[in-house]
Amino acid sequence: MPRDIPIGNGKILIAFDRGYRLREFYYPHVGEESHTKGEPFRLGVWANNIFSWVPEGWRISMDYLDETLATMVELVNDSMQLRIVCQDLVDCEENIYFKKLTIENLSQEEKEVRLFLTQDFHIYNNEFGNTAAYRPEVSGMLHYKGKRHFLVNIYANRKYGIEHFATGNREFNNDVGTWRDAEDGRLSGNPIAQGTVDSVVAVHLRLKAGEQETLYYWICAGNDWNEVSSLNALVVRKKPEMFMKRTIDYWKLWVNKAGLQTELLPEEIMRLYKRSLLICRTQINNCGSIIAATDSDVIRFNRDTYSYMWPRDASLIAYALDLSGHFELARNFFAFCAGIIEKDGYFLHKYTPSGALASSWHPWQKDKKPQLPIQEDETALVIWALWNHYAMYRDIEFIKPLYNTLIRKAADFMMNYRDSGTGLPLPSYDLWEERQGILTFTVSAVYGGLMAAANFAGAFGETGLAREYREGADRMRQAMDRHLYLEKEGRFARMINFRKDGSVEVDATVDASLFGTFAFGAYAPDDERVKQTMEQVYAMLWCRTGVGGLARYENDPYYRVNHDGPGNPWFVTTLWMAQYYIAAAKTQDELNRALEIMRWVQQHALPSGVLAEQVNPNTNEPLSVSPLTWSHGTYIAVIREYLNKSSALKQYGAAAPLT
After folding, report:
1. Are 414 and 376 in contact (CB under 8 A)?
2. Which sign, positive or negative, has the C-alpha torsion 136, 138, 143, 145?
3. What was the pLDDT predicted at 1?
4. Are strands 22-29 and 495-498 parallel, antiparallel or unpaired?
């Protein structure tokens, strides 16, 4: 089930499913240490002896408060004649999650209403050894294990503290969970439980006809009791509304940091642009790692998650953040990369949010011989993105310490990891992580990485080294002409491999990643070979269904729905076509082809603005993880590239420089 609305502050990430159940709670790193195991925190309502858990029996409208990372959720139950408006956010400074609930009696008679909020913590992502305990000194409910403490509290009926509560066991001896204790409208008051535990807290209200009442619920996250109790005392002293107001104000300031020519694009497209910036921010750790996705449901598909940092995805997202003016986040990412790059100058498959080596399926041995299990584009794109960052901001003091520790190390590796005969990179795994060889996308990325390194070397006065890197890139480009372009098909190959007998095995599959030929500078976007390639990408991979969108490649099997089409549409690949139209455009009319794709993305997002990895080509239902940070990052890049190109066309006319 997709995570329709994520919120966070760079240390905490919380996300809700489409039934408005809290399903993800990460702390102290986004994507690392899930404390829910994907299990739901529920909201239940009892009124005049009728009980209902949300979402059963409720009409739900889920969105964000515009330009913020605060939810705006409306729940209406016609049979109960109740309306509840909820706002959720994570404070922009402190590690506190807040929920504001305004309950309105829609009937013409007085009602007794009881709200029940459940906590199903699986601290450190497992159910063992947890404790839930009522702490009377703060009138709060504490869940803890080891160095992770979560303190729950409430402000209601004009006073602080929890009056109605229960703790108990679940997932053991057929115990369903203490949350079932709420369904009769009363809680047992059991003050402590140990092992596999959950808890419920409740608020009792009396509402006159047409009356409404507001209450606040919060969870303080910390490493010990002193930390969470101090945060709770801070909430009591400063009041919950102050924290909510300052966080809403902060996000409005943050998302509008860089000026935009908003009149150049439709309002709904710009709204999704700002929403994408904010959603990206929820997936970025303050330490610099940019996480692919935090939707734990995917674990049922392959027993692992997307809650890791892939240097490739993260580099392209950092590029988008730089374009948007949020260079501080990009800087943190590049500094993070300098700390995790291998001593020989390459990046491995993926990394945990805190920087440790993550799980992988790329082997260190093949055919009984050692091999380097890398996707070389991940190394190259970090350097490519870093040069784009420097070209925009000229922050030499930031770049200087990275020159030897990151740039030169990676560039020297790319120079050494080449076939001596052809000058092409040695085989590595592809960006889809499914095959190994010499990929057009990878070669294009390495070309861009070496040219970026040459630019850096020249800037630092090492002209000989700059010439060496540039010559390596030029030779690689010439080898692409000879070995990767298919004259007969009139397009680039997806991949080649050289056999031991000297012959070449060609994979001519049409793949959306062929956009790399122009994206990193290997070829101009108006090169006839690029043009023909991208035309075939569109013709072969556009889904001929009511949904539309561009698949990854011919007969893509990943989460495949239809067997008579190319595969499922991905937001990233569809947006790559927009990037091509922008780069190749020489008139405003040509540029508007990209606008059509922006509209497609906006129309196929979830109502909250969340973009999944891919969607069902028949129903538009999200498939795989949701949100995917890469989808939002690519949308940000497309908007910025479009605005930059539109300005250039207006300034220079038809002679506008290609970007």
Report:
1. yes
2. negative
3. 55
4. unpaired
Q: Identify the domain containing residue 506 by its residue range.
A: 327-540
478 with 546, same domain?
no
pLDDT at position 658 is: 40
Task: Look up residue 105 and give its amino acid.
Answer: N
Is residue 432 within 8 A of residue 512, CB to CB? The reply is: no
pLDDT of residue 150: 98
Contact 7, 282 (CB under 8 A): yes
Instruction: Look up the CATH number of the domain holding residue 59.
Output: 2.70.98.10
The alpha carbon of 116 is separated from its chain's Cα centroid by a whole number of angstroms, namely 31
Place of tokens 């929890």: 162
- C-alpha span between 462 and 492 (Å, rounded): 34
What end-to-end distance do the CA atoms of the chain give, in Å? 39
Token look-up 């990193």 returns: 520
Query: Using CA atoms, how far apart are residues 190 and 178, in angstroms rounded to an integer?
Result: 10
Q: Which of 524, 540, 556 is the last residue of a domain?
A: 540
Residue-level pLDDT at 170: 86
Per-residue pLDDT for 36 more than 80?
yes
User: How confident is the model over 394-424, as pLDDT tens digits?
Assistant: 999 999 999 999 999 999 999 999 999 999 9
| Other CB atoms within 10 Å distance of the CB of residue 497 | 14
Distance CA(579)–CA(584), nearest Å, equals 9
Contact 120, 169 (CB under 8 A): no
Quote the CA–CA distance of 19 and 15 in Å, as a whole number.
11
Closest CA to 142 of 216, 207, 222, 25: 222
In whole angstroms, what is the distance from residue 337 CA to residue 394 CA?
19
Tokens 């040459």 sit on residue: 454
pTM, to two decimals:
0.96
pLDDT at 594: 98
Residue 275's CB: how many other CB atoms inside 10 A? Answer: 25
Q: What is the mean pLDDT of residues 56-60?
A: 97
Mean pLDDT computed over 492-499: 97
The DSSP 8-state label assigned to residue 348 in this structure reads -
User: What's the mean pLDDT in 216-235?
Assistant: 98
> Residue 102 in 3-state DSSP?
strand
Same domain (yes/no): 273, 137 = no
On whether the CB atoms of residues 605 and 585 are closer than 8 A, the answer is: no
Residue 309 falls inside a structural domain: no
Looking at 525, 540, 555, the residue that finishes a domain is 540
| CA 659/CA 289 separation, integer angstroms | 28
Q: Which residues contact 650 (CB under 8 A, 6 or more apart)?
A: none
Task: Say if 589 falls within a structural domain.
Answer: yes
> Are 628 and 653 found together in one domain?
yes
Model confidence band, residue 491 (pLDDT cutoffs 50, 70, 90): very high
Q: Using alpha carbons only, how large is the chain's radius of gyration in Å?
A: 27
Which CA distances in Å does 648 have to 181, 387, 588?
A: 64, 21, 10
Q: Is there a domain that residue 59 lies in?
A: yes
Task: State CA 80 to chain mean position distance.
Answer: 37
Res 173: pLDDT: 67
> Which helix (H) or strand (E) element contains residue 584?
helix 571-584
DSSP bridge pairs for 76: 59, 83
Helix axes 440-459, 376-393, angle to 10 degrees: 40
Does residue 355 fall inside a structural domain? yes
Burial per residue of 76-112, b for 16 or more beta-carbon CB atoms within 10 angstroms, e otherwise: bbeebbbbbbbbbbbbbebbbbbbbbebbbbbeeebe
Specify whether 347 is located in the same domain as 235: no
Q: Phi and psi of 528, rounded to 5°?
A: -60, -35
